[in-house]
Specification:
heterodimer, A: alpha/beta, TIM Barrel, 8-stranded mixed beta sheet, globular, B: alpha+beta, Sulfite Reductase Hemoprotein, domain 2, Sulfite Reductase Hemoprotein, domain 1, 4 domains, 5-stranded antiparallel beta sheet, 18 helices, 21 strands, about 35% helix
Amino acid sequence: MIIKNKAIIEDDWQVLRLQDQETAEAAIVPNGKIIVPLKVWLAQRAVLQQRNDIGVWFASDERPENLAEDVHRFSVIAVDFPKFSDGRGYSIAYNLRTRLGYSGELRAIGDVLRDQLFYMQRVGFDTFEPRPDRNINDALKGFEDFSEVYQTSVDRKQPLFRRVVRQGMGAVGFGDD
Amino acid sequence: MYCYDEYDQRMIDERVSQYRDQVRRRLSNELTETEFLPLRLQNGLYMQIHGYMLRIAVPYGLISSRQMRMFAHIARKYDRGYGHFTTRQNIQFNWLKLEDTPDILADLATVQMHAIQTSGNCVRNITSDEFAGVAQDEVVDPRPYAEILRQWSTFHPEFAYLPRKFKIAISGAKEDRAAILAHDIGLSVGKNAQGETGFRVLVGGGLGRTPVIGSEICEFLPWQHVLTYVESILRIYNQFGRRDNKFKARIKILVKALGIDEFRRLVEEDWLNLKDGPGTLTREEVERVASFFTDPTYEVLTDHDSSLKEFMADNRNFSNWMKHNVRPHRVPGYAIVVLSVKKPGNAPGDVTHEQMDAVADLADHYSFGEMRITHKQNLVFADVKQADLIALWRELSKLELASPNIGMLTDIISCPGAEFCTLANARSIPLSKLIAERFESLDFQYDIGEISLNISGCMNACGQHHIGNIGITGVEKKNHEEWYQISIGGAEGNNCSLGKILGPSLTFHQIPEAIDRILQVYLRERIDEGERFIDTVRRIGHTPFKDHVYATDFTEEPIKPDDKDGVVAARYAVPFFSPRF
């Protein structure tokens, strides 16, 4: 079960993780819908690009630019959080959405917990695989923590100060004039 | 000062609910301590020796009397009757219970306060010049930009799990009073030759284990771009900052590794995507926020008050206080008053709930109901009528907040140290008391003149010892003794410099004597009284100081190994013995 667009749904994508000693070149990619490590995609691109049931996932130290020309081939891209405290995945997601223009499903995998979901959805994730030992229904509450935000990100192109009229204390000069 | 609108208020109210639920899940073991840790840290809650410590954000150090009374309330109701002002212009409470903390945050939210991002690997409280808005040398008031940055950084979704903590300071005066060279990002807002407002942007400064002076990444950034430019710096840091070693994770290490030119190239490459986009500040927004920082209703007055002069001539304590604790104000007839939270014998920065309530009343009466917390752990009344100075001095004297020692030897900056903090190697506060008592004589302090003394209990440098003229760092505890290193030559301000370690470490009881020897060298070597301690150090170098400090043995005070309380001649409520020793 995963969360997609704030609803719990069945999911038939598998995530391929390399075993110790296993190389990207030699890894066997099974049949069926499968999300492979970026390096497996890069190593076996010639073969894998024949298939239409392949997704790709980023480790937190990998760069979105490495996928640049291929990004629009995929209907699923995932970003792995090895630890919830490793925040690189947030910038990977942001860059995939804003710099590479990726518009397909963007999935958070790994150490994905309720208390990070609000921020994750803001930077462009729309699908979440919460850690299996946690109650997935409970995780849904994480999206509702805040009803308003100050700054721009993938979900909000305009900052609060451009979206709403906020009251000051009366007119003041700027000091530049 | 800034007042929350419905949006600001709703966000902190929702934060209280979110946090209350997180604490509930922790107490019911739904969350492990490991999972709860980064959540509580982003709410300023640390596990310390005696229990939980809560650090409350005081954005750029500015608070109202109403907020100060709330601190008094928290100190009384949830703590042991006092709080501790920090070097980052915040306040900490050291003796809290986890289950009380949601209520404390709810209480704080009623006075537009919170503890958001006061710890954790995120953008911390923005600090600024304690004299912002009233200093004679101010070019641009930094407070509106500090508030704009506060809002921008609050709950920033991309930068909540950075490699390490991230500190931003902003100054708008000719003299830097916000230590902008010692921050992850330092901003100096000013004017260019055309009179346009913009920022000099510094990056990669910081203290801690590896002290570094910040490098200039942008000489003049027009004000519209400050949020997007800072965003790009954070994005580069979030992706490339080291995460394999906590001690090499600050942005200064990344800037050093890449070099400032390569770092700038990466930032500006990212920034090209944001420049002039929707994150760009608007004139309307800056003016809206600035409208909260307009002048109070000053009376039209002049600077010359003959009764002050007469009273100064009659009263040496008052004239000392005028000379050291009162600063010129940009408006005639007004003055800036620094309240000394450094009475010798008291812990630097500790204020009791009675003092808090009384200070709040005085601020209402004498300074438009507002005050500031300084990075030197004192308080400031920014807008006092000169005609009120005598009355205010009398009131402050009763509260023991009028020690005429601002900028002097006993105006010591100190972290909480090993009695409270699990990171510290040694105690800080008892050492600061020992030093303050030894050099309590005002005549001696005035003879020494301007000097700064900073104490940190470990190399994490919360006492900012690297930029103290004399810096003391706790390095280890062994054989029933605490050992400290002394460095000299550090300074903050425009001529920021990092202190250099003098020699082998010394024990708790040797430190005051060592400082005495350092000061003897200064008194012997200075050209005249006009040459400050730091100037002499810079002129003659470390060697004469080192030679004299280590020339002869130190006399040890007898220590009974079993009598741990006996180590310190303390008039202090907290026993020396803590579970760590």
